[in-house]
């Protein structure tokens, strides 16, 4: 047990990107938690205050054109954006695992069909697909609907990654031996292949979350998001709608931009740190 703990500690010591990414994310979450405990969620509702108030002791970042406290809106909206990223990222990775494992392991015409579908959809800009699906949703969009829309379009990249890894692993001696031993294919996938792909799955999940957040922000910035939410993407949409950049309302548009940058930097560094674990060429000892 102590030996494993020492290995983990040494892994973190020689992995500055992972430490930096986790540190940024943890500090960000602590700051968010502090403000979440002292704010009133009702202050993030439209017309809670007089619109366009300047920063003060009551409103640290002032109020926006909708009459919402800017700080409260950001504190309430950040977990909504993360929720979209986590749900959509999970859906994308799970679907990618299913199709990637099936395609890579069974090969033949199944591999050809899945590859063909992936190639077709990857030739279309993802934002175009998202917009087409989003405008087809009747009524007001919800956070969950947006998460599902982004999620079902996020499986293409993971499918390619997992397929390529399964193609390599299934030719290794212990997998070939398991096949000759008559072990069921499902058991081979779950007990022989899947454990060896966990590093790739974790690294891919982190990047899928980041990609899903970016995709959701793009959809929301176009006015196709959940108007009842305070997500970072909807905050950017209202900034665009009211031309806050041209109006010089830096206190309204800058905070969500900073938070988005911090989230992406932390997730990118974490994924880079996990790459040593996932990539045998970079790994020295895990």
Automatic annotation (TrEMBL):
<keyword id="KW-1133">Transmembrane helix</keyword>
<keyword id="KW-0813">Transport</keyword>
<feature type="transmembrane region" description="Helical">
    <location>
        <begin position="252"/>
        <end position="271"/>
    </location>
</feature>
<dbReference type="Pfam" id="PF00528">
    <property type="entry name" value="BPD_transp_1"/>
</dbReference>
<comment type="similarity">
    <text>Belongs to the binding-protein-dependent transport system permease family.</text>
</comment>
<dbReference type="GO" id="GO:0005886">
    <property type="term" value="C:plasma membrane"/>
</dbReference>
<protein>
    <submittedName>
        <fullName>ABC-type dipeptide/oligopeptide/nickel transport systems, permease components</fullName>
    </submittedName>
</protein>
<feature type="transmembrane region" description="Helical">
    <location>
        <begin position="82"/>
        <end position="104"/>
    </location>
</feature>
<feature type="domain" description="ABC transmembrane type-1">
    <location>
        <begin position="78"/>
        <end position="271"/>
    </location>
</feature>
<dbReference type="InterPro" id="IPR035906">
    <property type="entry name" value="MetI-like_sf"/>
</dbReference>
<keyword id="KW-0472">Membrane</keyword>
<dbReference type="InterPro" id="IPR000515">
    <property type="entry name" value="MetI-like"/>
</dbReference>
<feature type="transmembrane region" description="Helical">
    <location>
        <begin position="18"/>
        <end position="39"/>
    </location>
</feature>
<dbReference type="GO" id="GO:0055085">
    <property type="term" value="P:transmembrane transport"/>
</dbReference>
<keyword id="KW-0812">Transmembrane</keyword>
